[in-house]
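Entry 14. Ran structure prediction on the chain below.
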Amino acid sequence: MKIAMLQAASIPLNYAENLHQLDQAMQQARTQGADLLITPEMFLSGYVLKEQTQYMAEMLPLVKVQQLAKAHQLALILGAPRETEQGIFNSTYFIGDQGELLNVYDKTHLFGDVDRQQFIAGQTPVVITTYHNIKIAMLICYDVEFPETVRAAAQAGAHLVAVATAQMQPFSFVNKHLIATRAWENQVYVAYVNQIGHEQPFEYVGLTTLAAPNGEVIAQASETQATLLFAQISAEQVQKAQQNNPYLHDLRQDLFMDLAKLA
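Output, C-alpha cells:
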C-alpha cells in the first residue's frame, strides 16, 4: 500500500482554509497513486483552540471531508476535535475511499495544560482498522512517547502505527530518534505526521517521519517546509522483521503483568 503524509501548517479556527489545503493534498496524493493520506494532529481545526474548543467540535465539517474522500477515492486519517456529552476529544478519524467513517481514535495521553484545558482523555488504547490488507493503528502525538502504546498496537497485530502529531520545540528528539526506536522495538511501520510553522505559543518542528520495521527511517521531511511524503508499506515486511527480530515473541510478559499491583 502506498501512503502519503501531509506536513503542513493548519490555520487555527479556519475550517474553510484547512479543507482547501486538504482537498489539494488529496488530489496530489491520489494523482501520485497513494491509497491513504495521513494528516497532522488537529489539522482540520488547528491545535490550540482554548475557549473555542466546543464551538469547533460542534461545527466540524466531517460530511465535507467524507465527500472529499469519495470524490478523490482516497482514504484519510484526519486529525480533528470530537464532541461528546462527556467533553471534547482530540481525535483522528479514519475515513475510507468511499467516504465511509471506518473508525475513530481519541488521544489517551494528554500533554500538559494545553491538552488538559481543552480535551478529555480517551480510554481505548488500541484502535485498529484493516485497509488494503494492512492493519493500521492510530495514535496521537504524546501517546507514542510511551512504549506501551506502540507495543500494545503491535501485539494486537498492527502493521502500521499512524501518529498524527503537533510536535513542537524543544522536543525534536522524538522525531529524530524515538520514532525509529518505536518501529525497531516492535517491528512495525511508524508514520509520524507533523505540523509546521507557529501557533502561539508553539513552534512546530516539522520532521514528519516514516520508520520501517527494521528501524530504518525511509522518509523524513524538513523542519520548515510544507510537503507531501510518499512511501510504500508492506505487511510482508512486518512479518519478515518480526521473524528476524523476535522481540514480541520472546518478551516474558508473565514477568510484568502484575507490576502495577506493586506500585
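The chain has a mean pLDDT of 96. Will compare against last week's run tomorrow.
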